[in-house]
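ok trying again, last paste got cut off:
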Amino acid sequence: MVSSWHNEIKNGTDPTREIMVKLLWIGFIIYTLGYVTSTAEAISYVAGNFIQVIGLMCFVPSFVYLLSWKLENKYLSELLLIYILWIIVILLRGIKFDYDTIKQLLFDPDGGIFLYLIPLFLLIPLTPSFLKKVFFVILVLGVIYVIYDIVFIKNLIYAGDNMRSQAIIERFTQFLSLPCGYLIITSIYHRKKISLFALFVMALTFLLAVIRARRGLMFMSLSMMIVAMVFYQINNKAKVVNIVLSFFFVLIVAFGSIKLYENNSKTTFSLITERIGQQTRKEVEHYFYRDLTTKDWIIGKGFNGKYFCPGVNEGPGRISIYRTVIETGYLQIILNGGLISLIIMLLIVIPSIIKGIFYSKNTLAKAVGCWIFLFLLYMYPGSMTVFSLYYILVWISVGICYSKTLLNLTDEEIAKELLSRDKIVQRSGF
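nice, full thing came through this time. structure:
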């Protein structure tokens, strides 16, 4: 990530760049809403694709304009170049110029071309105004998530194992609500009402994940709230009263959740009761391991790579024989780019975690270092490498952790730019 933090403070914002940053995020929001809304079957996929095209018309040119091919860290610069070259190889090994492939390239966040462009967010200069817009976009998606939950509440709380309901909860969470975890772990830099709203979104996400028996989403949303609580205690200098109150709050919530589950285990929470001990990925992973050759493990099968996996229910009337998706994130990376792709990515992100958590002077770097660590943790229960704000935040976080400028800033210096240019905002968290 190119760090232009001090340059913007000294010289002010570039009007053209400001417009392009706004267009970037407007286009991204439009693209995301087109996909999520069509997934929920509120509109047709044709209408959803049309909305996505409008989003791309804003996103693509502004994204290209904002790229700057200079990085502070030489190690990151060299590895990123290698990673980009390997991504090009992955794409060339699978791209076909037919209708279905082109449609997938443009409109599929799970495996389209824009997923592979996300590491390039490291090349967008990091400034206070850019970060503020990132936080605002997270908030906007959180508001949309709440609205969509109200509109589709019947589908979200439907107790049966309905494929549409499953798709809605997973897409709403992955594309709209999970980024709010970024706000609560960095709550020191946000207004109290914003932090509280983000916390509400994460709590709502956890509750709906329990009702829909999405165990991976339960783990993700709950762990984000726990990490946020840890940072809250640290930022408030771990006052004994706060620690005791937090401890009792956790006990009360845990006890209340257990009682609520016991009283509704055969009604509202019947699905999680049935699925609590199921091993849903075992058979899919078994076929995956059987299908891949030594060569496949090393270099992958390229873009749109498939593995033999018969009998999996992919939706109404669709039973798979060959699949392009496996629900475990690490295996998905290996399927497309092999161990080479996974190793390069780990060589980039693991040092960023260490730098952010252990070699920084501010909460921002430590918090986003934890965000990257959680990403690696979540890669088993879910495939997190999709074209979503959640995954974009991972690479923005990597850039923050590699920036010497940002690592050496104090919390007061960062808060002054993110909250107010006139005064330093006191630490408050929630």
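cool. Residues 421-429 have pLDDT under 50 and may be disordered. The first helix runs from residue 5 to 11.
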